[in-house]
Hints:
Helix content: under 10%
Distance between the termini: 120 Å
Radius of gyration: 35 Å
Amino acid sequence: MLVSAALLFSACGKRRPPLPPLESVPQRTELLSGAQRGNQVILSWPAPRLNAPEGSVQSIRRVDIYRLAERVDDPLPLTEEEFSARATLIGSVPFSQITDASGTVIYVDELALVEPVRLRYSLRYVNAAGQRAPFSNFLIVEPAPTVSRPPVVAGPPEVSQDAVVISWQAPASNIDGSTPPNLLGYNVYRTGRSPGAVAARPLNPEPLTSGTFSDQTFQFGEEYIYVVRAVSLGTGGQPVESLNSNSVTVMPADTFSPTPPPRLTAAATPAPPRVSLFWAANPERDVVGYFIYRSIDETRPREDWTRLNQRPSEKTTYQDEDVRPGTRYFYFVRAVDSAGNLSEPSEVASDQVP
Length: 354
């Protein structure tokens, strides 16, 4: 009877129109980080995961960024309620900019630095219904007002067989106009193709004290973009970088011939008749092999000597078995690199087949 009554009661109820799906409350992030660079504080955090039910629309519509300016001697502990009551909304990032392929969201807070201050940042996600997630973790920054202006990269980089060399001019002042510049050194950054996508780490392990840097990790045929940042002494003794210098772009082309192969020697044997050649490997990292040339007349122009191998030999030895007893043979070797550049001829070596 209880089951029947329940079914009867259910059947007598009125049908109601289906309710729209509820927007899920956006998630909270605990990974807000950032640092001062020049007169800016660069905030970053991982792009949020999709937190709406499967098959529904992503609930996050924007992220709001808040900032609270405090005296440097104010107490550090602060509740979320106190922060909410005192902080200022300084900007928002729309949903379209928080789900990019990089997986990281960036927000730049540009400052007018006048006196010492402690800045406390936090963010919260907001969905289409206006519901706000809890505040993220607090990021606390004490920006230094006296930070160097960026250096100026002077002209295009110089390209050699082994390095791309970048040069720059020292900044004349700090961002607040004071002199001399607060300067500990420089960091050099390199990226490919897009000037906005600067690498996370500098090429140099420690700040440079000179105005040049030799990049020996490049590859010929690749496009590179370089920027330089000055490094200043910040609040609490921590290093603070300047904004980026002007960027310079280079696509190194390999037009550099290898050096001639060194220490070529020849040794003839009678049975079977042959001449064995030996030489030292070239120091260039892009050398792919060697061509061997022969003549029975040492005075002939080098371009008229016979090349013995059609493809570059990867070895630093060669056995010439197409020889006749009683004849003296002269040889030289040329190195070839991956771009097809040929070295000048090596020194000539010779021997007479017994």
